[in-house]
Amino acid sequence: MPATIYDVAKRARVSIATVSRVLNNSDLVSEKTRERVKKAMEELNYSPNVIASALTKKSILTLGLLIPDIANPFFAELARGVEDASVDFGFNIIICNTDYRSDKETEYIRLLKQKSIDGFIISTAYYNDENVINLIKSNTPLVLMGRDIDRADMPVDVVVSDNVRGGYIATKHLIDLGHKNIACLLGPPQIKVNLEREKGYLKALEETNLKVRPELVAFGEFKVEFGFRKAIEILNSVHKPTAFFAANDLTAIGVIKAARYMGLEVPRDISVVGYDNTMLAEMVDPPLTTINQQMRKMGYMATELLIKRIKGKRSPGQKIVLDVDLVVRRSTGELFNRG
Questions:
Q1: Strand, helix or coil at 228?
Q2: Structure confidence by residue, pLDDT tens digits, 283-310
Q3: How far, in Å, CA of 56 to CA of 53, rounded?
Q4: SS3 for 314?
Q5: Are 259 and 246 in contact (CB under 8 A)?
Q6: What are the HTH lacI-type domain coordinates in residue numbering (predicted)?
């Protein structure tokens, strides 16, 4: 039978509270007593049960990470940044995949709270997410990563990219190449980053006095299938675009696939800009021009913010906006070069 905290206390001739203080690195224990407790732990091969210890201490050194789609390389990179920071700070991570479903998000949050985890990193939130609002109201340590909500009255930590600027410089790049009829494919409209990227797209068009065509703007999923299906639909319409701005790399790859299916060549016939700069952007043919997000840095900073709050070193309410930049590859070209 495994040794318990009671066995350690008996062997070290101290109280259970003293053993608990040693486990929590409390300054209230003398060095002599600390060494005696540690020696007892070694002799008994004692391994503390972190879940049970949640009853006697504030932290079990575990965070919950909620992401919508682990198959999307963007979220995989975010998760790697979260893991790197967790290791550096001595924490563990439980990753949950929600598939953009509020019911799955609700259930995962319930399960993780039952395990008494220390805090949440959420990258699934809609702009008025009730799950997030309830966590904030209950004063649960929380950071939103790559997402934001429209509740200025609620203090919440947020780490995001400058999505308005991202949408703007992507569209401006296409305009500078001579394109005037530019389609815009976005993710789910209930996610705030999509509205921000659309805002940047519209700003670039308006600054150059180009006509905004609502029929060239579409919301859908951050998936190859959506980019493929919607691009074919738009390219078969009366308003044939010469370029696409896609709000993530997977959607952009779907556009390239659609162009090839229709006998068009990228970038000779159609220019395509993606968003994220995931590893897929370099692997696709032709290599994808895209907006670079600092994905691992975003994950690392979000985790660091959360852990500092858990340790009582800061209060919630900080918003960190990371810069983005354009990475030009071979999926975009000047309009007059088209055959």
A1: helix
A2: 999 999 999 999 999 999 999 999 999 9
A3: 5
A4: coil
A5: no
A6: 3-57
Helix (H), strand (E), coil (C) string for 16-44: HHHHHHHHCCCCCCCHHHHHHHHHHHHHH
Distances (CA, A) of 223 to 9, 29, 52: 56, 55, 41
Yes or no: say if 274 and 246 are a contact pair by the CB < 8 Å rule: yes
| pLDDT of amino acid 48 | 67
In the chain, ranges of CATH 3.40.50.2300 domains: 62-161+295-323, 163-293+326-337
What's the pTM?
A: 0.81
Task: Take residue 136 and report the two structure tokens written for it.
Answer: 């904030």
Band of pLDDT at residue 127, cut at 50, 70 and 90:
low
Question: Dihedrals φ, ψ of 114, to 5°?
Answer: -65, -30
Query: 71-86 pLDDT, tens per residue?
Result: 999 999 999 999 999 9
Beta-ladder partners of 321: 160
pLDDT higher than 50, residue 338: no
Q: Which of 94, 90, 131, 91 is nearest to 110 (CA)?
A: 131
CATH code reported for the domain at 62-161+295-323: 3.40.50.2300
User: Is residue 127 a contact partner of residue 150, using CB atoms and an 8 Å limit?
Assistant: yes
Closest CA to 190 of 319, 317, 72, 68: 68
CATH class label, 163-293+326-337: alpha beta
Tokens of 262: 């229709």
CB atoms within 10 A of CB 161: 25
